[in-house]
Amino acid sequence: MTDHNSHPLASGLAPHRRRFLSAGLGLAAAGVLRPARAAGGTVRVGYQKYGSLVLLKARGTLETALKPLGYAVAWSEFPSGPPLMEALNARAIDFGTAGEAPPIFAQAASPELRYVATEPPAPRGEAILVPKDSPVRSVADLRGRTLALNKGSNVHFLVVRALEQAGLPYDAVKFAFLAPADANAAFVRGSVDAWAIWDPYLAAAERATDARVLADGRGIAPNREFYLSRRGFTEASPEIISAVLTAIGAIDTWAEGHAETVAAELAPSVGIPAPVLKIALERQSYGAAPLDATAIADQQRVADAFHGLGLLPKPIRVADAVWTQPERRAESR
């Protein structure tokens, strides 16, 4: 396979990706970065069984990128975004990834959260499923029925918006808050009427059970993936954040358009057959970049929706948690 760890990758990128990688690489050239610390430091990265971070881990790309800065990498796997965010707030990890809802709750719990980048929307990558022979034909038919979902995960917002769009109040549905593995078991044995889930679990459930998609994120929820850190870490180690984001940008560039190859590479670690992963990967988006006004506004809508339902203890302003790269702060002075 082609080695994508070197900086010349930026020359073949789409303009917005070239700008993103150049921003990270340009920090050193601008003399903004602090000198690399002594060898022996470790960057603790939280990941889920899917996405660009899994590829970075499998290929050792991040280790290669951080070695010149004197850092090793320690990886921690999480089943979903909420526990990963808890670990980030508890300072058990330094960097991680999650969907739309988990960072909202994390920011409400701690002002330390920092959004450092986002992937473009992937609305087909999450959905509400029902069994193939279910009498439920629309979201409105879920009234009084039981819906399984991972509380505080990206699909939680999908459900909120889908119910709203169908004219159902939030409490018109009974919720079974279950982690993906438990929700899958409940869905298969028929103990719940519907299941809100994201890829690759979504693709696996469709293939294994012939489940029907009642609604996906299209026209309802963007389904963005965010890369996140803490204020203390971003302020102390901007060079590490930039190196990680550059590595993510490079792996994104390679992965886009190579779903079959990526699926074959991910299948052993994810534990899902490559053909199923390929379906999920074709619904994924690529092109990690700093949060723009649209991404911030989309995320603010998530925060406002949860606060409006009483699920968020206090209102938050997403823009307050968005990290700005050092050279951009310097330019604004």
Structure characterization notes:
With 333 residues, this protein is α/β, with parallel strands linked by helices. Helices cover 44% and strands 16% of the residues. The chain has 14 helices and 10 strands. It has helices spanning 15-29, 52-59, 61-66, 81-89, 101-109, 154-165, 180-189, 201-209, 231-236, 238-255, 259-270, 274-281, 293-308, 326-332; strands at 41-47, 71-77, 95-98, 113-118, 126-130, 146-149, 174-177, 194-198, 212-216, 226-230. Strands 2-1-3-10-4 form a 5-stranded mixed beta sheet, sandwiched between helices. Strand 6 (146-149), helix 6 and strand 7 (174-177) form a beta-alpha-beta unit. Helix 1 (15-29) packs antiparallel against helix 10, helix 4 runs parallel beside helix 5 (101-109) and helix 11 packs across helix 12. Residues 1-40 and 328-333 have low confidence and may be disordered.
What's a concise summary of this model?
This protein is α/β, with parallel strands linked by helices.
- Measured between the Cα atoms of the first and last residue, the distance is 44 Å
Which stretches are low in confidence, meaning pLDDT under 50 for 5 or more residues running?
1-40, 328-333
Give the assembly state of these chains: single chain
Adjacency order of strands in the biggest sheet:
2-1-3-10-4
Please identify the structural class as seen in this structure.
alpha/beta
Strand content: 15-25%
CA radius of gyration is 20 Å
| Helical run tally | 14
Beta strand count: 10
Write the topology of this structure.
Blueprint: H1 15-29, E1 41-47, H2 52-59, H3 61-66, E2 71-77, H4 81-89, E3 95-98, H5 101-109, E4 113-118, E5 126-130, E6 146-149, H6 154-165, E7 174-177, H7 180-189, E8 194-198, H8 201-209, E9 212-216, E10 226-230, H9 231-236, H10 238-255, H11 259-270, H12 274-281, H13 293-308, H14 326-332
Parallel strand pairs: 1-2, 1-3, 6-7, 6-8
Antiparallel strand pairs: 3-10, 4-10, 5-8, 5-9
Helix pairs in contact: 1-10, 2-10, 4-5, 8-12, 11-12
